[in-house]
Amino acid sequence: MTTTHPTPAPQSAPNKPTGPKTDRGKKRSSQNALKHGLTSTQMIGPDELAAYDYYCRSLIEEYDLATFTEIILAERCASCYVRLQRGNLVENQLFERAKIKNRLHAPEMEELQLPTRLMRKYTVNSLAGLYDLRHQTNTERLAEIYNMQSEVFSCLARGVKTLNGIEEHAEAVFQKLEHLAELAGIKVGCLFKAENDQQGLASAVMRADIASLPSELVDYASCEPFEFISYQSQVEEFLEMLSEEIAAELGCFSIDVKLNEMRKLNERCTLPDITELESLSRYNHSLNNQFSKALGELRQVVKERRESEVKEEAINHVEPRLRRRQD
Fold first, then answer.
1. Where are the beta strands (DSSP E) in the chain?
2. Looking at the whole model, is its pTM more than 0.85?
3. Residues contacting residue 83 through CB under 8 Å, at least 6 positions apart
4. For residue 236, with 0-12 CB atoms within 10 Å meaning exposed, 13-18 middle and 19 or more buried, which class applies?
5. Hey, which of 27, 51, 187, 293 has its CA 20 to 30 A from 249?
6. Contact 190, 182 (CB under 8 A)
7. d(CA 171, CA 181)
8. Does 196 or 186 have the greater pLDDT score?
9. Tens digits of residue pLDDT in 263-294
């Protein structure tokens, strides 16, 4: 006896956006793809139109283009060139936005004394005006960011220099702290333990190397005798006074902490989103291939035309002689 299995019903595809359904919507979508955005095949704004015309004229003058096919290939090369420059600008803008976005809003940047013009223009809510090809063309704003790039880098260089100076100062301070801790914790304690009164301390100071002892201890040993206090309280008082001096001297370490936080923030915010960057890099690579292919075709067509012109010129130069001989 055979068993029959029911045929499974066809499963519907997952709900994914498939684009416009009507002819009008499809037409509008195709027009938007040709006229707007990064992948637009048309020129966006007067700057790209000027670059397109200039590059096209340069190709016509360089290769002395004359035929209709050559001019079409020159226009294709100019279009690929301008679109490639657009992709490179967007890629540079991604890096600039990643560098500037969080740096300008971090409180730690105040320590670097950034230019007031830079801080005034880019406040918390002003990043929406950056060059964005999805909505508008604002090459002047992008050029302004590029011009201020050197200012940002110089300020960061000053910040790094300040950080290096603080690190050197911190190293010197820690060496001094180790020396003072050794004197306060070992030598002072041993002296008070060995000589349990002020007179014994004075004699111990005379036997020790005065240059290696804290000045407070030398002053205490050289003063006139007064009521005796145990060595433990003296050491505690001296260490407390020393800790206050250390705290005052280490007050600059708050700047060190802020600059370290800024350095970590800088490392975290230097690169843009990897997915967006890879997609843009693939698009630029595709445009570069199209540009190289179009330019190669143009050169090949020009080469064939020039060879044919040379042959025609040679034929036109030889035919009259042949006719004369025949006559």
1. none
2. no
3. 40, 41, 287
4. exposed
5. 187
6. no
7. 15
8. 186
9. 555 555 456 667 777 788 888 888 888 888 99
